[in-house]
Design goal:
The protein is α/β, with parallel strands linked by helices and 493 residues long. 40% of the residues lie in helices and 20% in strands. Bound molecules: 4-oxobutanoic acid. It comes from Leifsonia tongyongensis.
Length: 493
């Protein structure tokens, strides 16, 4: 059921009031020590949709205490019992999928098509980690001297602080909560202040699924920096898992260094999308639309720079511009809308200034290129060609619906251009020669490669980057090991 004007406010209330709008600490909904609250706003209409409690430093520390108290009990729960709770959470998310998707659209602005995709992706993390919870497998080996055995086992790392972004308010939360709970850890989730409602809704689903009080604590806050920093200074906290910008990641790593907290960091990206002269152009354009436009371009995996062989660049640009021009832009809850607004005015100004700088340096616009004025933080789908190599749009994460195209002549040049960045999250490669595709992929300095494929995100795969795109991996078996410490016992056999 889409929200129509006549009953928009009733439907908004239905979507936003089945879970608390307060802090969730130790299984209780709390207003917060200093009573501060903040508004959550719909990016398409600018209207307030809810008011949420804002955690202070003392609330953050109370959440750490709650997680610390719950840790011995949760880590002792049998793997099968943990698995069943996570499985139940997956089922409840599936049952409420449409409500969750519309809630995401309300607070994030993305199209309902993207939001439905996100809910399915998010729920899969609970299913995957329900299956992993019973597979925390260690090892036994004979030492090289032959004199003893080396027995290795994995233990829950302990209280974990999870800091999540606004672009995937459900999936980035479940991608961290799923493996943490499967490994036996307790958590404090600090969702982005633009999108706290989805996190609170997921906490309610976890409660209904049987997660005991104190195992999952949620503290939305407008004082994120101070609250997270104080939690990291608390000796009970042993893990930080962060998804967000490289800039904020650097600050958190400095904070975490004070107590040597183990960190998993999923940071910024600047994904190159390489199209070789032998690529199937239909499939390259389909892949480009996904790699660029999934989540409206607001994804760390979004293709940021298109490097296209000179022999096919004109045709590729023409076809991509045609597809981008045809996208239906509007309120994410609108009928058949494919692209919603950006998250806020700051995001729109950033995209606008990157495009303006590229144009000033000589780029031509095939479609889009001008910011909409008026209500909602909309930016049109845009394709730029003849982008000068020095343009900031090729260095910075655009986080919006803009595709800058640059041409190349040789494979070596394509690889060199692709690797010319401090980031190393993901690359996309299109070629019909598998051997070329694999050898180019291996030369790309990124943690993930989409080879003839415009999406790499998969709960079963290790997601993460090289260079300044982060540390550690999320998803797959690796994602659960991030929430463990391994212990080795040298045994005289
Ligand atoms: O934006 C970061 C995460 C994107 C994804 O998991 O596909």
């Amino acid at each position: 059921m889409l929200i129509r004007h006549a009953h928009r406010s009733e439907r908004t209330a239905e979507l936003t009031t089945w879970f608390p709008h307060d802090l969730v600490i130790g299984g209780e909904a709390r207003a917060g020590a200093d009573g501060h609250r903040f508004d959550v706003v719909n990016p398409a209409t600018g209207q307030r949709i809810a008011s949420v409690a804002s955690a202070s430093v003392s609330d953050g520390l109370a959440a750490v205490r709650a997680a610390e108290c719950a840790l011995p009990g949760w880590s002792a729960v049998a793997p099968r019992a943990k698995a069943e709770i996570l499985r139940k959470a997956f089922e409840l998310m599936c049952e409420r999928a449409e409500d969750l998707a519309q809630l995401i659209v309300l607070e994030n602005g993305k199209s309902l098509i993207d939001a439905r995709g996100e809910v399915a992706y998010a729920a899969e993390f609970f299913r995957w980690y329900s299956e992993e919870a019973v597979r925390l497998i260690g090892s036994v080996q004979t030492s090289p001297s032959g004199q003893n055995r080396i027995v290795v086992s994995h233990h829950p790392i302990g209280v974990s602080v999870l800091v999540t972004p606004w672009n995937f308010p459900a999936a980035m939360a479940t991608r961290k909560i799923g493996p943490a709970l499967a490994a036996g850890c307790t958590v404090i989730l600090k969702p982005a202040s633009d999108t706290p409602l989805t996190a609170l809704a997921i906490a309610e689903i976890l409660r209904q699924a049987g997660v005991p009080a104190g195992v999952v604590n949620v503290i939305p806050s407008r004082s994120s920096g101070a609250v997270v920093s104080a939690m990291l200074d608390d000796p009970a906290v042993r893990k930080l898992s962060f998804t967000g910008s490289t800039e904020v990641g650097r600050t958190l790593l400095e904070n975490a260094s004070r107590t040597v907290v183990n960190c998993s960091m999923e940071l910024g990206g600047n994904a190159p999308f390489l199209v070789f002269g032998d690529a199937d152009l239909d499939s390259a354009v389909d892949g480009a639309m996904i790699a660029k436009m999934r989540n409206g371009g607001e994804a760390c995996t979004a293709a940021n720079r298109f490097y296209v062989h000179a022999s096919v660049a004109e045709e590729f640009g023409r076809r991509l511009a045609e597809r981008m021009r045809a996208l239906r832009v509007g309120d994410g809850l609108g009928e058949r809308v494919e692209l919603g607004p950006l998250i806020n005015e700051g995001a729109r100004l950033k995209v606008d200034s990157l495009v303006a700088a590229a144009r000033d340096a000589g780029a031509s616009v095939l479609t889009g290129g001008e910011s909409h004025s008026g209500v909602g933080f909309f930016y049109p789908p845009t394709v730029l060609v003849d982008v000068a190599p020095s343009s900031p749009i090729l260095d910075e994460e655009i986080f919006g619906p803009v595709a800058p195209i640059v041409t190349f002549d040789t494979d070596d040049e394509a690889v060199e251009l692709a690797n010319r960045t401090e980031y190393g999250l993901v690359s996309y490669v299109y070629t019909s020669d598998l051997s070329r595709g694999l050898s180019v992929s291996e030369r790309l300095e990124t943690g993930m490669v989409g080879l003839n494929r415009g999406v790499v995100s998969d709960p079963a795969a290790p997601f993460g980057g090289f260079k300044q795109s982060g540390l550690g991996r999320e998803g797959g078996h690796e994602g659960m090991l991030e929430f463990t410490e391994s212990q080795y016992i040298a045994v005289n056999w």
